[in-house]
Specification:
Sph/SMPD2-like; sphingomyelin phosphodiesterase activity; Endonuclease/exonuclease/phosphatase domain-containing protein; 14 strands; globular; Deoxyribonuclease I, Chain A; six-stranded mixed beta sheet; Endo/exonuclease/phosphatase; alpha+beta; Endo/exonu/phosph_ase_sf
Length: 266
């Protein structure tokens, strides 16, 4: 049975504070790393996307929509062809907040791997400004509406395609809201049982939950499995020799295995 290894990274790159120096440092790391597909969130400006594109030439295929501002702040880098990709915006719901300017949503791409086509969904949900994920919270209702849209997007993907859904969900991994979403979308949690925070602890937020996720969907003929771990936890040296963290989030890197006959969907 043919087996294809896929190295995937998802990372919220943070839109404020030393953005260009941090992105230059990130680009250097990505260029030297052996990731096959990289899902980035909070790449807000087209100039940031151009910077990353120039400095990561080993990723010959990229997806990012929009003009001055990228749709959803989402960008995907791939060493393999992106057969097609599109962006869907989440429903606009209150309360009013500056975050709405990011036009958050989901980016769906079909990646032509050596083992056949793979759908990769890169997403960033609205933040919970109350840090309260209980059922009645106003931001929980926003998350539920966005996750309903995301579940419909996943359901609309060709059932013959294995699927990876990755990104910053801004909802704790153990939350009933995410459990219901996974059931509706038919997804398995690659990090099930791991409660390690993916947001860097701070004095204000000393015990953050696991907000970043990777989910998988296999098909009857092509199994998608793997394991994952946190990355980018330590400070890095910026181009001006200062040390800084790459983001207020950690990255998640995954080693995925696609088993089954190659299937190219055109």
């Amino acid at each position: 049975m043919p087996v294809t290894g896929i190295r995937l990274l998802t990372f919220n790159a943070l839109i404020r504070g030393d953005v260009r120096p941090r992105l230059r440092a990130l680009a250097g790391i990505l260029q030297e790393a052996e990731y096959d597909v990289v899902c980035l969130q909070e790449i807000l400006h087209r100039g940031s996307a151009r910077l990353l594109g120039r400095r990561t030439p080993s990723y010959g295929f990229r997806a990012a929509g929009g003009f001055a501002l990228l749709r959803g702040g989402l960008m995907m880098l791939s060493r393999w062809p992106l057969v097609r990709h599109h962006f869907t915006r989440y429903p606009v719901t209150g309360p009013a907040r500056t975050e709405l300017l990011m036009r958050k949503g989901a980016q769906v791409a079909v990646v032509r791997t050596p083992g056949g086509d793979l759908a990769v969904v890169n997403t960033h949900l609205s933040a919970n400004r109350d840090d309260d994920w209980t059922a009645g919270n106003r931001y929980t209702r926003i998350a539920e509406a966005e996750l309903q849209t995301l579940a419909a997007l996943v359901a609309a993907i060709d059932p013959a395609l294995p699927v990876v859904v990755a990104g910053d969900f801004n909802v704790p991994r153990h939350s009933p809201t995410l459990t219901a979403f996974r059931a509706a979308a038919g997804l398995d949690d690659l990090l099930s049982g791991d409660s390690s925070p993916t947001f860097r602890p701070t004095a204000r937020f000393p015990k953050p939950p696991a907000l970043d996720q990777i989910y998988l969907r296999s098909t009857p003929s092509r199994a998608l499995t793997g394991d994952a771990r946190l990355a980018f936890q330590d400070p890095v040296r910026l181009p001006d020799a200062r040390e800084a963290y790459l983001s207020d989030h950690y990255a998640i890197e995954a080693d995925l295995t696609l088993t089954g006959p190659a299937d190219h969907r055109g």
